[in-house]
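Bumping with the actual sequence this time:
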Amino acid sequence: MEITSVKLRALYSGSDRLRALVSVTFDNELAVHDIKVIAGKERLFVSMPSREADGRHLDIVHPINQAFRDKLEKAVLRAYHLHD
């Protein structure tokens, strides 16, 4: 599965940890919206779309393996830094 598009939909600044909302398109056929760029204590990271249920955040969509998670995070953070 190839990442064919990464679009920053909103950028945030200030004291909040949320830095951006991103949409990613895969194989020009599937789009995933509301992927978040979060400022962690040591680095930026990517958080997948989720919903809250019973006080917990549950991913709606997520990578199945670490290799694809790394590939996705790298593409999203590259796009974020290009607009930074």
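The tokens above came from a reply further down the thread. The chain is about 20% helix and 50% strand.
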